[in-house]
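Reading a protein record of the kind used here takes only a little practice. Think of the row as the fold of the chain written in a discrete alphabet. With that in mind, consider the following protein and its fold in token form:
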Amino acid sequence: MKLQRRLIDLEKIKSLRINQNLTIDDMSKVLGYDGYNAYYYKENGKRKISAEEIAIIAKVLGVPIETLFFENKITDSVIKFKEVI
């Protein structure tokens, strides 16, 4: 059985956060960080977001967790492109 790899849509997370008037600092506090840097790096793709954090982010943003991932067709294309490079 092949595991399906799903990529987090960081732009969607950022857009949803901004549309709900939540700051990076707000999200940092919800995730238990002392400062805003840790969340900033995650939302900008410089650090990985854990499964637990994605679940918390989805809950705070009021969306199903699946909403925070790219569609499968896009994900498969990105993976294939990375394999070519």
